[in-house]
Input
Amino acid sequence: MKNIEIIFNEWLNSDETKNKNLSEMSIKNYTRTANNLSFGILNAQSTIIKKLKENYENPNTRSSYLNMVIMLRKYKDKDIDKLIRYRNEMKNEIEKLRKEKLEVSKEVLPTLEHLDTNLEHLEGLKYLINYLFINYGFRNKDINLKYVNEIPEEKTENYIVEINKGIKLSINDYKTGKQYGEKVFFIRNPKFMKEFRKRQLKEGDYLIGKPQGGKYSISNFNDIVLKYSIDQLGETNIFKILMKDLIDKKNYKRIEELSISRGTSMDTLIRSYNVYNSI
Output
């Protein structure tokens, strides 16, 4: 077993870490990052910085590994001052890359009119997925919906239920769920209801579930959603298109509505999804 694996397992099983009540997904992500580190974390800080630069060109990827190194060195009471300083320096590099990507998005992404036109001609699951993306600005995780006859008191998943003349969504398991809590939406769009009923879901079925029943893994689920999104744009690009259209029209009230439905602050929307924010 490599030293990094030993140190990581010590950290993972420590009382301090257990008291953080990390989610299963967080533990999985931490484990994958630790397992992929190709150098010793107890090396000199200057050596670690050199290895990070050599091995990871993308600053976001480099930052993920740097954070892991800092976390484990801190656990082992090793110096981290130079690593912290390097992490702060990388923020400018990450911001530059983000703006470059937004600039590219501005040039190549289609219009909202293109999305709306395509949506009109879709059917079935493809229509349902894209309707939710375009009208609510949801993330992938938000639409991992479980069909129930009645929403339970203890809400641990995202639920979809038929109500009088409509459909109710109860979204609890999403990126910023701990901060914003349950998100509730009512859909009475006739076509959405028609396409949803065609699915003929039974109690406990998932809107996007395995043919034999059950929930997809996160990676498989994301692959399916990407495949079914218009032009395989994915939820992030679709949301950028929404934001561009609303900014062009100065429709800040609608941006505020999307802030609520997505569970993201207005500041984050303007900073991360505004294709004009590239200068």
